[in-house]
Amino acid sequence: METVIDEVTAGIYRLSTHIEEADFSFNQYLIDAEQPLLFHCGMRGVFPLISAAVTKVMPLSRLRWISFGHWEADESGAMNDWLTAAPQAQVAVGTVGCMLSVNDLALRPPKPLEDGAVLDLGGKRVRYVATPHVPHCWDAGVIFEETTRTLCCGDLFTRVGKSPALSTEDPIGAAMAAEDVFGATALTPNTAPTIRRLAQLKPQLLALMHGPVYHGDCERALHDLADCYAERLQQVNS
Ligand SMILES: [Fe+2]
Ligand SMILES: [Fe+2]
Questions:
Q1: 11/17 Cα distance (integer angstroms)
Q2: Residue 24: nearest ligand to its CA?
Q3: Residues 89-118: tens digit of each pLDDT
Q4: How far apart are CA 188 and CA 224, in angstroms?
Q5: How far is the CA of 124 from the centre of ligand 1 (A)?
Q6: What DSSP character marks residue 155?
Q7: Near ion ligand 2, which residues have CB within 5 Å?
Q8: Cα 130 from Cα 143, distance rounded (Å)
Q9: Residue 94 forms beta bridges with which residues?
Q10: Percent of the chain at pLDDT above 70?
Q11: For residue 181, what is the enclosing H or E element?
C-alpha cells in the first residue's frame, strides 16, 4: 500500500491511498499556504503512511488547520494523531460537528465554522459550506478554496476503483454505480437543493475524497448529480 501525491492545482496536493482488497481509494487534500490546511484526516491505521506523505510536501510542524467533511473514520479517524504530530494545528469544522463530536473528542478545542465562514490561509482562502445530511451525517460540510475555485466535495461523487489524480471523465456514471452498491447518500427533499447550492459556487475543480479530481464542467456535473438524486427520491415516493 502506498500514498501517491499529486499537485492537482497550484499549491493543492492530493494524497491518495488505494486499498486493493476493497478496490477503493481514500484521498486527503493538503492546501499549502502561509497557514496550511489538511482536509480529511484518514483512518488511524494509515496515519503513519499519510503523515509520511505530507512530510514530502512540508514539515508537519507547519500544519495550521485540520478539517474534514463529517465525523467518520476515513474523514476524522486520525484527528488526534494529527493534533499530536502538529502542535500548532487546530481542527476547524462546522458548528454542528463541533457540538456533536469534536468539542468532546479533540485533544484541543476546535474552531467552529458557521455556514459560509471563510478561513484566510494567507495565499489561499477556504470557505466552509454546511451540507447537513448531504451526502450523509448531520454534521456534513464541504470546503471551497476560492483562489483556485477547488471544491473539496468529500463523499459526493464517490466511486470505486483506482483513479488518476485528474480526470475529465463525466463523474456521474461511476458515482451512481457506487451509490447502487453502497447506498451511502441520505435521500431527502434537501439532497438535490443542497447539491445545487454547491453548483452556485461555480467550481473549476471537484476534489473527490474517493475518486479523481474532476476538471470538466463542474457546475453541470453537480446539477446532473442533483438530478439523479431528485429522480431517485421521486421513484421512492411514487
Ligand atoms: Fe462519509
Ligand atoms: Fe469518505
A1: 20
A2: 2
A3: 999 999 999 999 999 999 999 999 999 999
A4: 17
A5: 25
A6: T
A7: 74, 155, 209
A8: 9
A9: 113
A10: 100
A11: helix 172-182
